[in-house]
Specification:
The chain has 2 helices and 6 strands, in the order E-E-H-E-H-E-E-E. It has a 4-stranded mixed β-sheet with strand order 3-4-5-6, with no helix packed on it. Strands 1-2 form a two-stranded antiparallel sheet. The protein has helices at residues 16-24, 49-55, and strands at residues 4-5, 8-9, 43-46, 76-81, 87-93, 100-105. It is elongated and about 50 Å long. It has 111 residues and is of the alpha+beta class.
Length: 111
């Protein structure tokens, strides 16, 4: 039996009945995990003002559009935020080409 997947473990799992009870009590927010928490092992980066405009549309980014020195941006998956802390999604940084491509966007309405 699988008892753990990533940050999720069986000891913290809730039954549907428990979830329904929390929803009726209007206390479910206390157990909901934010999407970016799942990717906590990935490096977090912040986009510039110009980068924010591009990331809001799911565009490819270049290292210059991040508030970091290009040399300090690791290859692999990155969690992308704006300067207010708003999470936009997961991007993949290819060090050889310098391109930072969207993998999965987590945009909410009004973005």
């Amino acid at each position: 039996i699988r008892s753990r997947v990533g940050i999720f473990c069986i000891e913290e799992a809730l039954t549907l009945g428990e979830i329904e009870k929390l929803a009726k009590q209007h206390t479910i927010e206390g157990v909901i995990i934010k999407p970016d928490a799942v990717f906590a092992d990935d490096q977090a980066v912040v986009v510039t003002k110009e980068g924010r405009r591009l990331v809001e549309n799911g565009n490819v980014l270049s290292p210059e559009l991040l508030q970091a020195d290009a040399e300090t941006i690791p290859g692999g998956q990155l969690r992308v935020y704006d300067s207010t802390g708003r999470f936009y999604g997961i991007y993949q940084h290819d060090i050889r080409s310098g391109v930072i491509k969207p993998v999965k966007m987590f945009l909410s309405e009004g973005t």
